[in-house]
Description:
Blueprint lengths: L1 H8 L15 H12 L2 E9 L5 E9 L3 E6 L5 E6 L2 E6 L4 E6 L6 H4 L9 E4 L6 E7 L8 E8 L7 E9 L5 E11 L9 E4 L4 E4 L1
Antiparallel strand pairs: 1-2, 1-11, 2-3, 3-4, 4-5, 5-6, 7-8, 8-9, 9-10, 10-11, 12-13
Amino acid sequence: MKLAILAAVAPLAVVAAAPASQPTGELALVQQHLRGLTTMVADFTQTDRNGRILTGTMSMKQPGRIRFQYQKGVPLLIVADGGALTFIDYSVRQVQRWPVKNSPLGVLLDPSRNLGRYAHVAPGSTAQQLVLAANDPKHPEYGRITLYFARTGGGPAGLALQGWVAIDSQNNRTTVQLANQRFGGAIGDETFRWNDPRKGVSGRG
Length: 205
């Protein structure tokens, strides 16, 4: 289970495969959505390659802050407050950290980045779905992530994030599905603090 969770957040370097250009068309629409997104709260369901499922609540606040609060009884937490993305396993008192910008979730958490540098729009399964794929073709060992948006009036630019699929270098697949998305509500900065199991003090992601 731990490996499946790490597959969703572990470092993924994204480097331009071609000269950077300003997003156009649907890519520009995703960029507009991310830059217009202030906060979002959603329920999430996470499924690993073996079909094991965890649930919880995701809280996101731009720029750079996110928290995955897992269901009761799961001693795991993923949180970032703008600098590093932090994975905490309270059962073994382990903390791992990566720069947000080197994580797949950097696609979501740094709206100032130019999507044209590292992402492209892929075909969706329906006309109401918009798919964004991000990876570094020069370094397939870094893995890849695909995000799914619905064309709905519920979020900025008429889009709402529905979830993503992350695949690591060992081809481990982790799927995250979102539901009950709420946009623009107040989220305090204390939401993105965490207790360090190694020191017993509050941490900052």
